[in-house]
Amino acid sequence: MKKTMLKNVDWGGLTIVNLLGVLAFPPYFIYLMSLAALTASGFLWTTHLSEADQGRFIDFEKEFRKGYKMEKAGQLKEARVFYEKLKNQYANHPQANHLVTLQIEKLSVKLAKSLKKLPAKKSSSAKTKRHRS
Fold it and tell me: Whole-angstrom Cα distance, residue 17 to residue 45?
């Protein structure tokens, strides 16, 4: 006597629903839908600004752009001083303060690298002057 699979396994309602779900929806569809649900739930964790804070953040962006233009023009020290003033001005605005802090750190690294390069250039030009005389 052959026993069928249905008689050997204790089939629950959830198991049957899962099997029917797999037949109706391919695994990649379930994967995509679960990712979409996780992404959509991420919006619950984001912070939202009030209209006043949004306006202030837009004003910050206009000011920040001035420092960015200085930076692109090669005025790194002036841009860093400008960002420091901007940081003090927007100290109570978390997003603005965070952006300015990141920019200041980036400029500090650039300035440190440029200062390391300057003595090397001066010493090499001094060596060539000694060899010429």
Answer: 32
Domain ranges of the chain: 11-42, 51-132
- Count of positions (residues) in the chain: 133
Taking the C-alpha atoms of residue 130 and residue 120, their distance in angstroms, rounded to an integer, is 15
Is residue 100 packed enough to be buried (19+ CB in 10 Å), middle (13-18) or exposed (0-12)?
buried
Asked whether the beta carbons of 99 and 115 are under 8 A apart, the reply is: no
The residue whose two tokens read 């994967």 is: 31
Phi, psi dihedral angles at 91 (to 5 degrees)? -65, -30
**Per-residue pLDDT reduced to its tens digit, 7-60:** 556 667 777 777 777 777 777 777 778 888 877 777 666 666 678 888 888 898
Q: How confident is the model over 95-133, as pLDDT tens digits?
A: 888 889 999 999 999 888 888 876 555 555 555 555 554
Distance from the Cα of residue 58 to its chain's centroid: 19
In angstroms, the CA 88 to CA 54 distance is 19
Helix 51-72 / helix 76-89 crossing angle, nearest 10 deg: 170
